Amino acid sequence: PQVRMYNWTIVDKDGNPDGVYKPMMMINGQFPGPMMEVNEGDTVIVNVKNSAKNATGIHWHGLLQNGTNFMDGVGGVTQCPIAPGGSFQYNFTVAGQQGTYYYHAHQGVQMLSGLVGPLVIHNVNESKTSTDPYSTDRVILLQDWYHDPAEGLLRDSLSPGNENSPIPNGALINGMNKVDCAQHPNRTCDTSQTLLPSMDMMAGAYHRLRFINAGGFAWFQVAIDDHLRLLVHEVDGTPVKQFQEADITLSPGQRYSVTFATDQAGFDFTEYWLRARMIEGCFADPKLPDNGVSEAKMIMRYVMPAGMGGPEPSPAAGNSTRSNSTATVSSQALPTSTNSLVDYAMQCKDMTARNKYTPVPALPAPAIADHSWYFRVNMAIGDWRLERGFMNQSSFRSDLKQPTLHRLIDGLASGNDSFSVAGKDAAIMDAAFHPDHELVLSHDRIETVDIILQNVDEGNHPFHLHGMPLWVLGQGHGYFPGYEALNLKPGGKGLLDPANNTVVANPLRRDTVTLEGFGWTLLRFVADNPGVWLFHCHMVWHAEAGMGLQVVTRLRDLRGWTVPDANRKLCEASPEVLSSGA
Ligand code: C2O
Ligand code: CU
Predict the structure, then answer these.
(1) What is the helix (H) or strand (E) element at residue 413, kind and residue range?
(2) pLDDT tier for residue 164 given thresholds of 50, 70 and 90
(3) Is the CB of 451 under 6 A from ligand 1?
(4) pLDDT digit string (tens) for 48-96?
(5) Where are the alpha helices (DSSP H) in 98-192?
(6) Ligand 1: distance of its center to the CA of 112 in Å?
(7) CA 335–ligand 1 middle distance (angstroms)
(8) How would residue 126 be classed by pLDDT, with cut points 50, 70 and 90?
């Protein structure tokens, strides 16, 4: 194992990734943020200096942070935000995980201002789940993109009378796209230095693509023209038995790895579109005017293998998140391939709802849950005519100057056990409601917990749990049919395979799972990672409107914890400063 050290300065900077200028936040002036590539077992140290005008914090999406809750990066939950002028060192070990992840700001909607980047964890065996050894390994970072400043959009979306979340103006692939400035007459727009994303792919070889939906709101469906064999190998960091798909659907927060062959048209210089379409029906009210830009496209260019007289092949083994374009702005040739993206049947369900993905190696789920929590999920107009996100009757609002983890540790030290009274039995309403509308599930020891999400409105919600992976035991439309109907008996024989009455040992495990409109989702996890973990919808407008709750785990083992000095120090900034940008 190695120590991977990164020094990041967060700055405010105007950018025009697709031509249209807007105020952005960047890491070391880069967008997307720097590629982090580590091996399983490595220690990651990121020194973050905040030179921007707003407070911030960085979350490592999908990394479990086992034993390092203080490094989870969630303002108001695990830390005070990093004030302007302040700094903080994230320091954690990446153990027991591999695959495709990303990082993003977890303060307000700063991820929409550009604070995102890919994080890949390599494993010595990673290519062995593939029967086709691949010669290149690349990240395809997908983002919806808003032309208005994110802060203003957030203020508007949380204002009284506002019922619709803002709709993105376009999409980016690896931070790139190119608009027609004539279509944006009221914006500052310049595409003279703007390229469409492109990637060179050695012809006649296999390639791995790691798709990441790092956007805030939109669902993406991705396909490559004329390449209909995409073999899925990884779902949110879980290696799976390879499974063929023609297109990949990702909710915000989800990742999939595929391999495919550049086996079309002989060994010719040929170009194809990779298309990433935002599925508007999953996030936009159909009554809203179509904003006309729902697709981002990347040029995938075949190049000759080395030794055959063509250009050198692309860099191997995932060291290129940026496309390695060889074209100049004026001469960027456009593919003429025809759209293969025809299947919209899946719409806003996870791909895992249509097909069964089998984790390799098997990751057995415990047969019986100790608790089963039922949540009614919706967006609704709450107090002060504000549209809020609700789980049962609770809408989450974090207190940025008093992170839950600090209050918990201080509370336990002073004998205040208000957190530990919750979760004593499996009934619905014993989750604690705190005065500031927090819904907290708490567990004394390592326990197995089921979460039943019941969606009572038409919108879809991709739910993401920090700290512990989720087994997906079931998803469907309508009302949760009950354990019996699913052959799952919480107090009885447990997780049964209907066919032969044996324990289902290997359901898919991932970290971001869809709750479809008017549907249900049943999730199971082992609450073994001590600390406070956010569970929330990963559509930023819903999350900021309070669609989330906190899970407090292993209270018993938190009694000896103290808040590190560096974390205490973050909280010394004034409340106004800490909540800036949120
Ligand atoms: Cu990707 Cu709570 O976040
Ligand atoms: Cu949502």
Answers:
(1) helix 404-413
(2) confident
(3) no
(4) 999 999 999 999 999 999 999 999 999 999 999 999 999 999 999 999 9
(5) 150-157
(6) 13
(7) 36
(8) confident
Shortest-distance Cα residue to atom 1 of ligand 1: 61
What's the confidence (pLDDT) of residue 489? 63
Q: Is 542 in the pocket of ligand 1 (CB under 6 A)?
A: no
Provide the pLDDT confidence category of residue 398 given band limits of 50, 70 and 90: confident
Quick check: CB of 466 below 6 Å from ligand 1?
yes
Taking residues 89-111, what's their average pLDDT?
A: 97
The CB of 371 under 6 Å from ligand 1? The reply is: no
Whether ligand 1 lies within 6 angstroms of the CB of 207 is answered as no
Residue 151 near residue 185, CB atoms below 8 Å? no
Structure confidence at residue 291 as a pLDDT band (50, 70, 90): very low
Q: Which amino acid is at 64?
A: L
Tokens of 549: 């709750």
CA of 76, nearest ligand number: 1
Please state the atom number of ligand 1 nearest to the C-alpha of residue 536. Answer: 2
Question: Which ligand has the minimum distance to the alpha carbon of residue 539?
Answer: 2
How many Å lie between the centroid of ligand 2 and the Cα of residue 396?
13
Say whether 223 sits in a helix, a strand or coil. strand
Residues near 111 by beta carbon (within 8 Å), at least 6 away in sequence = 104, 105, 214, 216, 540
Q: Which helix (H) or strand (E) holds 568?
A: helix 565-570
Burial of 158 (0-12, 13-18, 19+ CB in 10 A): middle
Residue 37 makes CB contacts below 8 A (sequence gap 6+) with: 119, 120, 122, 318, 319
- Mean pLDDT computed over 163-173: 89
Query: Ligand 1: which atom is nearest the Cα of residue 62?
Result: 1
How many angstroms from the chain centroid is the CA of residue 344? 22
Report the pLDDT averaged over residues 117-122: 97
Q: Identity (one letter) of the amino acid at 91?
A: N
Q: Of 91-95, 184-188, 359-363, which gets the smallest average pLDDT?
A: 359-363
Read off the amino acid at residue 181.
C
Are 112 and 29 contacting, i.e. CB atoms less than 8 angstroms apart? Answer: no
Q: Which pair of structure tokens corresponds to residue 444? A: 């004394």
237 or 203, higher pLDDT: 237
Please tell me which of 168-182, 326-340, 392-406 the model is most confident about, judged by mean pLDDT.
168-182
Distance (angstroms) between ligand 2 centre and the Cα of 139 equals 26
Supply the mean pLDDT for the chain.
Answer: 85
Ligand number, closest to the Cα atom of 455: 2
The single-letter code of the amino acid at 192 is S
Instruction: Please give the distance, rounded to the nearest whole angstrom, from the Cα atom of residue 539 to the centre of ligand 2.
Output: 5
In the chain the domains, ranked by start, together with CATH numbers, are: 3-62+97-353 (2.60.40.420), 371-578 (2.60.40.420)
In angstroms, the CA 440 to CA 445 distance is 15
Nearest to 219 by CA among 542, 435, 440, 514: 514
